[in-house]
Design goal:
The complex is a heterodimer of chains A (171) and B (257).
Chain A lengths: L1 H24 L2 H17 L1 H4 L5 H19 L3 H7 L16 H11 L5 H12 L4 H8 L3 H18 L11
Helix pairs in contact in A: 1-2, 1-4, 2-4, 4-7, 6-7, 7-9, 8-9
Chain B lengths: L15 H8 L5 H12 L2 H20 L2 H5 L6 H8 L1 H13 L22 E8 L2 E4 L11 E7 L5 E7 L5 E5 L6 E2 L5 E3 L4 E2 L7 E8 L5 H14 L17 E7 L4
Helix pairs in contact in B: 1-3
The chains are: A mainly alpha (171), B alpha+beta (257).
């Protein structure tokens, strides 16, 4: 019975968790490990799960935080690429592209330029297309804090593209 | 302080987070019905849901549930799970109520494929790092092995062909020089995989479903017409102008930069 419940959780959500881990880690093997870790963490946080009306959002948040932690622990390859002039990124306006693929790619390039909370807020906003209110709820921050983190992320995009900060907010 | 503009997809449809909740059956029936009405007419959102389905199959192949079970310390974690099993059951009950409004699920534990009107096509990519679902975001590399998967719905025959920017047509699933018999209802992997060569150009792949076999030769002029109509841009070709009544599904193979 208990195994069956765990299996149900896994069968319904593992694909989404895997997709998030592959996107953030860009490494198939690391993503496979991350899926296991996320579900083990979900078990450890079973008490928190009881209040969740949206298990997918809850698991995606755990997966996002786990993968951003892994990225932080790695050498900062993106910064190195920026220093060496090997990375060219689009300007911040591209963050509002209606092309999901373009937006995902730019956000992924920028994640290692900002702190972990800012990165998580940016992923939920620009990739998951959540509202600021929804993000505030899942990361446990006020609306002004969510907006502040988003502006920090946009400023990081501006800086990488060689533009002055906050020249573009929204479209 | 200026407001930040909300993020929207080109189709103006539901957010990715909402599509995810639709896919997992978490939406209330009325919301699920609204999303489904949009998805039925939106190729972009259908592609996202197709990616979700392919990802589910890939994770089952790459990270079987037994791998997670093996890491549970004795029965301790499972005992903890028992405490929230009721809460896990609640959204499942809600999902059951919405069964006719959300993607149907198979009963044998296989991937809960999104099944809408019409047939479908997706693919898996095998690399030295493992198997992953093909999707619109990840580029392909020479040597990658591609295996297509199709759902012919009730059609009897399937022909899978690729069209490159030069109008060259390659058959990926056929019986001789014409359509092969569909393996039956539901999702079916084609019998064999193809290995990508070093050609960096994108390729548009079509699955053509019919009740009578189609000859590959019939596709060549249709591919040329479609390419001409799209000014030679194969990424914009979404449909082959075939004379007969054929259901079509398509995916785009893009090479990694």
């Amino acid at each position: 019975m208990d195994r069956q419940n765990l299996r149900q959780l896994y069968e319904r959500y593992a694909g989404h968790v895997h997709g998030r881990c592959r996107y953030l880690l860009k490494d198939e093997e690391a993503a496979r490990d991350a899926v296991q870790e996320v579900f083990l963490k979900a078990l450890d946080h079973g008490d928190a799960f009881r209040n969740e009306a949206q298990p997918s959002t809850w698991l995606i948040r755990i997966a996002t935080n786990y993968c951003l932690n892994v990225l932080r622990a790695q050498a900062n390859k993106t910064r190195q690429a920026v220093r060496e002039g090997r990375l060219e990124v689009a300007g911040p306006q591209a963050l509002w592209s209606t092309d999901r693929a373009e937006r995902r790619q730019l956000v992924r390039e920028l994640l290692e330029q900002v702190d972990q909370e800012t990165a998580a807020v940016a992923v939920h906003y620009f990739v998951d297309e959540m509202t600021q209110e929804e993000i505030g709820e899942i990361v446990g921050r006020s609306l002004p804090t969510v907006r502040k983190r988003l502006r920090e992320f946009i400023d990081a995009a501006s800086a990488l593209a060689g533009e002055p900060p906050s020249t573009a907010v929204g479209r | 302080m200026n407001e930040l503009s909300p993020i929207e997809a080109a189709c103006g449809g539901p957010s990715l987070a909402t599509l995810r909740r639709y896919d997992t059956g978490e939406l209330a029936p009325a919301d699920a019905a609204r999303v489904q009405a949009h998805v039925d007419g939106c190729e972009a959102c259908q592609a996202v849901l197709g990616d979700f389905s392919a990802e589910r199959t890939a994770v089952r192949l790459e990270v079987p549930f037994s791998a997670i079970e093996a890491r549970l310390p004795g029965g301790r974690a499972l005992a903890k799970l028992r405490r929230f099993s009721l809460y896990l059951a609640l959204p499942l009950i809600g999902a059951a109520a919405a069964l006719f409004l959300v993607p149907r699920r198979t009963t044998n534990g296989e991937a809960p494929a999104i099944r809408r009107k019409g047939a479908r096509l997706d693919y898996f990519v095998k690399t030295p790092a493992g198997v992953r679902p093909g999707n619109q975001f990840a580029g392909l590399r020479p040597g990658d092995r591609i295996r297509f998967r199709y759902d012919a719905e009730r059609m009897k025959y399937v022909l899978i062909v690729g069209v490159d920017p030069d109008g060259k047509v390659s058959a990926y699933a056929a019986s001789g020089d014409r359509s092969m018999r569909s393996a039956g209802p539901g999702l079916n992997l084609v019998p064999s995989a193809v290995t990508l060569d070093a050609d960096p150009q994108p390729e548009r792949v079509f699955a053509l479903f019919s009740n009578e076999p189609i000859a590959v030769d019939e596709i060549v002029p249709a591919a040329k017409d479609a390419l001409h109509e799209a000014h030679g841009d194969v990424t914009r070709v979404k449909h082959l102008p075939l004379a007969r009544d054929v259901e079509q599904a398509t995916v785009l193979l893009r090479r990694a930069p």
